[in-house]
């Protein structure tokens, strides 16, 4: 009897090996709807005039800062988050996206959840392969202008830089 129970148990265990996992799958993990525009960016902030001419390079002496762009929870292809992680003006706001053109902008809207003020984002672009890192390899770049209604200096800022590579630059 022990022999039959062992044989039945082995048969069941052996059959689970065939049905428990399917190594082959046709599912692709996919990505987000703004994946080529999303990322971590090393950028600099300059003050510019209405024509885009630089008035002040790095007016607050911050050097290179990091900003993030990422998809919304709805994974909309026409919106993404623009977030300076508290390194410049503490903005974290949704911007409108034209994914095919790799452009973004935002009409006047709150730039953080506290309602500290509003900001306008214009001329936002992600340019694939347009930058070169210190090693000479092509890298994506980002550029946009932003104006804050609570800026006592009334400046327009151009934020520009390239995608974070993970290598020491």
From TrEMBL:
Keyword vocabulary terms for this entry: Hydrolase, Signal
Domain of life: Bacteria
Signal peptide: 1-21
Keyword Signal: yes
A Pfam family it matches: Lipid_bd
Gene Ontology MF terms: hydrolase activity
Gene3D superfamilies per record: 2.40.128.220
InterPro entries, sorted: Lipid-bd_put (IPR024404), Lipid-bd_sf (IPR038668)
Protein name as it appears in the record: Lipid-binding putative hydrolase
């Amino acid at each position: 009897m022990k022999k039959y129970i062992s044989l039945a148990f082995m048969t069941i265990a052996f059959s689970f090996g065939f049905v428990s996992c399917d190594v082959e799958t046709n599912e692709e993990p996919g990505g987000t709807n703004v994946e080529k525009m999303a990322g971590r960016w090393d950028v600099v902030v300059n003050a510019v005039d209405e024509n885009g001419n630089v008035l002040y390079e790095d007016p607050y002496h911050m050097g290179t800062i990091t900003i993030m762009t990422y998809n919304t929870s709805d994974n909309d292809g026409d919106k993404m988050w623009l977030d300076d992680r508290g390194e410049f003006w503490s903005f974290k706001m949704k911007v409108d996206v034209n994914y095919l053109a790799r452009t973004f902008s935002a009409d006047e809207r709150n730039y953080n959840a506290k309602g500290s003020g509003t900001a306008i984002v214009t001329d936002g672009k992600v340019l694939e392969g347009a930058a070169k890192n210190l090693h000479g390899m092509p890298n994506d770049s980002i550029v946009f202008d932003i104006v804050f209604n609570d800026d006592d200096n009334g400046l327009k800022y151009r934020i520009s830089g390239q995608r974070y590579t993970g290598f020491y630059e």
